[in-house]
Amino acid sequence: MKLVSPGEAAANTNDMSDKAGEDLVRIGEMAKKYGVTLRTLRFYEDKGLLNPQRDGSTRLYTRRDKARLKLILLGRKVGFSLRDVKQMMDLYDPSGSNTKQLRLTLDKSEKQLARLQKQRALIDDAINELSNSMAAVRQMLSERSAPQASVAG
Amino acid sequence: MKLVSPGEAAANTNDMSDKAGEDLVRIGEMAKKYGVTLRTLRFYEDKGLLNPQRDGSTRLYTRRDKARLKLILLGRKVGFSLRDVKQMMDLYDPSGSNTKQLRLTLDKSEKQLARLQKQRALIDDAINELSNSMAAVRQMLSERSAPQASVAG
DNA sequence: TATAGAATTGACGTAAACGTAAGGGTGCAG
DNA sequence: CTGCACCCTTACGTTTACGTCAATTCTATA
């Protein structure tokens, strides 16, 4: 039940093999396409975030997996843990209004937003402190010869 | 050679015991004073960042240790690793101009400042993305009943 | 003297998201 | 048949800054 051979993988962008336009890709192509490593994809699967089909032992990623991976990467970008991402995705039900999922997502997002804002404040603080220290150090360097009220003991 | 007993520790702010105003404190008081745990102080010592005297096996922190701890905490605040902090402090020489130390410190600080600014940019990015996503989710929630172009598969 | 409070060393545990190496299989181009 | 190019699983390693026991000792105070 071979679907995509390595040699023709490149030319195989829209091969209709089994069903209609299922567009299955193996791990290598998937990784390249989304800028992650094979290890990462396997890791996400191990953590229950992805669930590719198999052709024997070979993973075949569907368009659904791609959508999920996009979400994972978005979640990662905004600072969610994989655990959070999983919680949110696990609530998805294709046959419902997904109100619960959306509410959970919104709730987590609000908290995450707060965390990000706090982080930004801390970083701004750090930048200010560091800038001050740097000014002081520059001072001391420019006065090297004068009495040292130096920096450490 | 008892210097500071636990009971009188509080009233003992400027006890002149051995030398003049040496102001030695034990680990408990040191920790309280700087808002760190005992474990942290011992850890810093283990890593060569602090070097308190000993009365038998009991650590006695001098004013020098306090100065160093302040620096460590400042370094930590601005995002330096303890390894970096140590490198900078290790270059301190009480009998010199400390030009090398200051230069290293400045160099590391510039790099750290760059890292902080990059981080801030990433966080700002994340905040924007997250805000957008939240708006979308709110949209979908407000339209719950309309066709779902929902969030996950 | 009994007890509570402070200190000591030693050493395993934790978190997060993978990295990396080992050992092995499949299939096709040459 | 060889050699790649891919793919697989298992499982230990990495990073940083401590947390959390555990078992023991010291000492001041009631």
Automatic annotation (TrEMBL), chains A, B:
The keyword DNA-binding applies. InterPro entries: DNA-bd_dom_put_sf, MerR-type_HTH_dom, MerR_fam. PROSITE patterns: HTH_MERR_2. Residues 24-91 form the HTH merR-type domain. Keywords: Coiled coil, DNA-binding. This is Transcriptional regulator. It comes from the Bacteria. One of its GO terms (molecular function) is DNA-binding transcription factor activity. PANTHER family: HTH-TYPE TRANSCRIPTIONAL REGULATOR YFMP (PTHR30204:SF58), REDOX-CYCLING DRUG-SENSING TRANSCRIPTIONAL ACTIVATOR SOXR (PTHR30204). Residues 99-133 form a coiled coil. Pfam families: MerR_1. The keyword Lipid metabolism does not apply.
